[in-house]
Batch of 2 targets.
Target 1
Amino acid sequence: MSEYQYNKVTPEMIEKFKEIAPKRVLVGDEINEDFTHDEMAIYGKARPEVLVEATSTEEVAAIVKLCNENKVPVTPSGARTGLVGGAVSIGGGVMISLTKMNKILEYDKENFVVKIQSGVLLNDLAQDAEKQGLLYPPDPGEKFATVGGNVATNAGGMRAVKYGCTRDYVRAMTVVLPTGEIVKLGATVSKTSSGYSLLNLMIGSEGTLGIITELTLKVIPAPKSVISLIIPYENLEDCIATVPKFFMNHLAPQALEFMEKEVVMDTEKFLGKQVYPKEMEGIEVGAYLLATFDGNSEEQLEDIVEQAAEVVVEAGAIDVLVADTPALKKDAWAVRGALLEAIEADTVLLDECDVVVPTNKIAEFLTYTKSLEAEADFRVKSFGHAGDGNLHIYTCSNDMEEAEFKKQVAVFMDKVYAKATEFGGMISGEHGIGHGKMDYLAESLGPVQMRIMEGVKEVFDPNMILNPGKICYKL
Ligand SMILES: Cc1cc2nc3c(=O)[nH]c(=O)nc-3n(C[C@H](O)[C@H](O)[C@H](O)COP(=O)(O)OP(=O)(O)OC[C@H]3O[C@@H](n4cnc5c(N)ncnc54)[C@H](O)[C@@H]3O)c2cc1C
């Protein structure tokens, strides 16, 4: 139980909010239902008392300061595409939406950085950078998330295997602290050894330590050519066993995703497309790798494709399909991009886990989760980032009672997280902890690390007003 006492928003506070952010303050039932949950509603819904759509750092600071003085909780929200109940006002109070802070401010092409407001959508940044001949490498599946949300969750995505996660592209940021103070963390430099990295502490803190309002992000010159390969296998074990062989052979895929046939077929049905082969050379396909390579000339890519084909066929692939037309490449990736959407469209009750395990343990881990399916009344569907061992495992039901579903899922998740820890993995590879995964984090990290996290939280947020009930601080 929380030892901190919170207050309700008062009419006087609402008047002050309206002075700070005229016409951008919504109260009670004026707030759309969309703001009561993120993409994983199973972790609970809550309507904030007040929603403020901020347009500047100063507005955010003024609102947070007022809330801190009055001990009213504040929840920052981006596009609410999160999968762990992070942007949900479970403690009541004020939600500050950053989505109207959506300006790309300036490129510095000599230092390879771009400065943006934190509510810019990933899709908008990616397209704008492309027009400049640049690439912003982080590529999480949901393109309509905000970049601020990506930074707050240290989002990963498809290109992490070659280029790293969001953390690797954050150079500097402007943050409003829970006290309402504004700080600038980091700088437009490519290295630093200047005390504790508060910048890195803020990345992945899921809106519990500060509200990010501006970001300076590293970009790179865009590779000139990109090509994707669809690689079918008879079974998942052979498919996963190929992964280290790419790296041993100096093939550095930009993306390396695995998918099992059943999940691909469901998604193709959802999209109304047939893209992936189901049978080849008389062999029934069981799983696929989808690999993308980039390079700076067509010739370089041709060499890579030739070498990759040799490596994977020797490692047990049935064949290799080169997605050499823009349409095929788009379709192949459209299926990958819609896996979760297809699961959501076909499922009434849904929960997920986002563990990361050493890559050589992926197949064994998935075989284990499948074995647990036999003991449960729900279905289990999985896919993930083969190159970095980050697995998304979904429990799905259309006919169970919610209470029974939750009870059975809790048993399943306990075992799944325990196995991930036993294999040397971690609770979350990229979605974060939010509200939904707090117990599993505490279980896996143990009391000493949790005590340090709680201490950090208290230093940043003495009144515990910022996004309470998330990561390490229970309500
Ligand atoms: C179809 C689908 C595919 C996805 N694929 C991926 C994937 O490949 N990789 C991946 O990592 N994630 C993925 N996600 C999860 C989700 O898109 C990411 O977690 C994303 O980073 C959330 O951004 P958002 O703007 O929606 O943030 P929200 O959901 O609004 O918020 C997420 C958390 O960040 C905090 N927050 C938001 N903005 C700020 C800010 N400016 N300052 C401080 N805190 C803030 C919130 O309080 C909350 O705790 C996927 C989700 C969906 C629905």
Target 2
Amino acid sequence: MLSKSPSILELELSGWGRYPVIKSYLQRPEKISSFSEIVQESKDISVIPRGAGRSYGDAALNPKGHTILTERLNRMLAFDQQTGILRCEAGVTIKEILEVFAPRGWFPAVTPGTKFVTIGGAIAFDVHGKNHHLDGAFSRHVKSLTLILASGEVVECSSQENSDLFWATVGGMGLTGIITEVELALCPIQTAYIQSHKLKANNLDEAIALFTEYEPQYQYSVAWIDCLASGRSLGRSILMLGNHAQVDELDSKQRNQPLQIQSKPRFKVPFDLPAGLLNRYTISTFNGLYFARQRSRQVQSIIDYDSFFYPLDFLWDWNRLYGKQGFVQYQFVVPLETSREALLKVLQLCSHKGWGSFLAVLKRLGSHSGWLSFPMPGYTLALDMPVKPGIWEFLEQLDQIVIQYGGRVYLAKDARLSPEAFRSMYPSFPKWLEVKSKVDPYNHFSSAVSRRLQIESIRELVQV
Ligand SMILES: Cc1cc2nc3c(=O)[nH]c(=O)nc-3n(C[C@H](O)[C@H](O)[C@H](O)COP(=O)(O)OP(=O)(O)OC[C@H]3O[C@@H](n4cnc5c(N)ncnc54)[C@H](O)[C@@H]3O)c2cc1C
């Protein structure tokens, strides 16, 4: 039975993709001590923490229990100006860190493509940025974290202390406990600007060659890819590279206040667009125009960090572009050795079947980290797909290609992967399950994704 005390709000809730929408019971504790109390007092009800709700699918949803909002865990606790180490609560967002620390010359060492995520959410999916090939995932910069376990016990862990728990928690989707505090290393910057370099690639081979050639020179790299182009243009892309700019690279106006940027207006999508608006014809027209807009083969410029890292954040509620039914993002990674072949197969299938993505992003990833962390050395492609008839069958076809080439799907973006496909894609899952079974034998931390993927504790493992 779900408790319905007055402090519990009943709401229809979804992730960023607006699929699935699930009736949820929400709690919003004000203090860290209240988090412990909720965990201890609600023994017969499962709980899952929720940050900013920017994961796309069902990871921060709990239809059979309570969803615990972490938004009031938003205090910065200490900062060491010498080392750049910040101690903060887990509900602090990347946006808040930027607002406070970029003007003081410090920047998040890893940031995803939106700044509206919490530190807890970033750890729970061990997120990657445009610098993963060099700087690794978010967890590499986490010095330590504090976790409330299912027993109510509060433990500290890091890659050195309680390391099994640490590697199960990074990427662990909130299923090992609630992260309350974090020690995070920021990286020093001279300016709030990025020296950006855009290059055109006429097909996938050119794009991969450009990534390989330019990556040693640039800390950040990402490519927009036209996933509906076919024939000799299959995989045509615009590669965007960047480094933090030095003061002497700025113009005189920027040099006056090198660590400040002007805030720009944000636009709102006023209503849900008709579901069919983004179709193969509109997307293919948009892609053609976007590719043609950059006339020369390469363009260099100095732009502020918001424009480089977070272009989508300028459009508030852009998830409404896909209509009421919502959308999923299909993001997968394939190992370096098989990347070219696998990407060609996926792009050919998208182009052939007309499953275009308005936004398709290609990135190079580096080494693996947590047991359920997504990255592996290789290329990752992210495709946004509206929920409409035929999508699940199509994505299952893509799963088969990804599995065949030794890759995996990113669970932060997922809402439909099967338990069997998950097990083929995440070979370190048994190690994760062993830790989960020890620290949470009765599945007190549980969510829509843990039930869908059947990744709940096995009691026998508790004795191991
Ligand atoms: C526009 C856009 C761009 C993105 N770009 C990238 C990208 O470039 N790279 C990338 O890796 N990801 C990217 N993402 C995905 C996003 O970074 C992750 O889904 C991230 O986890 C969202 O954080 P959140 O605070 O919104 O967490 P939520 O979505 O609320 O929750 C995500 C998971 O974290 C868990 N969680 C949240 N808080 C805690 C806590 N305090 N303790 C324990 N568990 C917790 C939840 O239970 C859930 O399992 C992008 C998302 C969007 C919308």
